[in-house]
Amino acid sequence: MDVLIASTLDAFKLLFSGDTQIWEIVAISFRVSTLAILLAIPPALIIAFVLAYGNFFGRRFFISLFSTFLSIPAVVIGLTLFILLSRQGPMGDMGLLFTQSAMIMGQFLLSLPILVAMAHTSFQAADRRAWETARTLGANRLYAFFTVVYEIRFGLMAAMLAAYGRIISEVGASMMLGGNIAHYTRNIPTAIALETSKGNFAEGIALGAVLLFLAFVLNALLHHVQGKGSINS
Amino acid sequence: MIDNFQFNFRNICKQYRRQTILLDISLTITNGDCFIITGENGAGKTTLMKILAGIEKPDSGSISVNAGAATSWRRCRSRLAQSMMYLHQQPYMLTGSLRRNLEYTAKLNPAIIDKPAAVDQVLHWARLEPFESQQAISLSGGQQQRVALARAKLRNPQVLMLDEPTANLDTDSRDRTLSMLRTFKENGTAVVISTHDPSFFADLGCRVLHLKNQVLTDKTIMPSAVADITSYLKLRGK
Prior knowledge:
Number of domains of chain A: 1
Structural class of chain B: alpha/beta
CATH topology of chain A: MetI-like fold
Helix content of chain B: 25-40%
Largest sheet of chain B: 7 strands, mixed
Radius of gyration of chain B: 18 Å
Order of helices and strands of chain B: EEEHEEHEHHHEHEEEEH
Largest interface: A-B, 17 and 25 residues
Radius of gyration of chain A: 20 Å
CATH superfamily of chain A: MetI-like
Distance between the termini of chain B: 23 Å
Shape of chain A: globular
Shape of chain B: globular
Number of strands of chain B: 11
Oligomer: heterodimer
Order of helices and strands of chain A: HHHHHHHHHHH
Number of helices of chain B: 7
Number of helices of chain A: 11
């Protein structure tokens, strides 16, 4: 217990002492995960929309497929991309392995099924009249799509937060694809894993605290926006 | 005023889970027309109106516009969506204020040059000025119906379709709806109304079409001998 208290105190001292190494790790984490989620959102919304509103052969199969991908372990995605990006792999010439781009690819693939599955649920729960009203008011399909997206924005925001929380805290794919290289591909979860294995609990706890704080800020933000959207306000 | 137009729907068929809902429905809509579609619950009135409005796909049938060549519904879908406007039984209010709902519609109509002025004008026309900043979803059923008609006014469609527009409305709201519909008709907009109460719309001088056993019959002309509307239209040479 004493170790935990002492390490926690040291962790906060580290955070507020302006330790550049810590904040560099935090910055890499945010950069990689934010880019990955931003890249994943547009295709995920389109796939979710087509699955919810489309009427085509194999629709149910694709819905089940994306739901299955929800539970795919990060290391499996890491392994698959590692094989593809390694020198002998079909994408080896691109030289992406152990770069931030490889980490973004891994996190993109991790977040996509979460976004698709949760956004699909939101689209399905949305009032069908929203789409029909937009169309009948003269909106083209793209504009009507954005209208529906706006109508269900809170559900979609929850999906984005869930996906962001998943990718910023995953360690398997980042470790395999980024290689945990200091100042380049070392992000919060890989740094926590490394520091813990070295017995530097203070650094691990400091980085963990940043993750927790991030989760709190994102959730508070979501609740604030949802409150603004209520009809009573 | 609305320019002259003619939509010919021919042999529209629709099935749901192998059960036929609409069978060889044919209908011609021109400017200023007014149709009332009656029928029991589940007869297919809403489905028919959604097909006419380009929202729902029929299984078969063809459409020709302004005496042009007959084409499939799929090819004509955009044209239908452009020209027709379908109003739900319970109109859907977009998130935000009443004014935002009208601004959204005005933005989509390129013919409107001064959009804020057009919105103000329509607010006045629908007597909705006191509620313009209110959340649209919090308005009463009658007020929401007027918002839907105000949006239709901004949209200025060639054909306006209303699904049970007076259901669940009080007498005052029903009267207002009727008077607003009259202005659409006077403007040359064709009006198609699905209702269980055709007598309420008698003032509009509508033809009453009855949907029963998957077939649309005209009850205005031949109330005693129910006849297929197709036969009637053929007699009229349409």
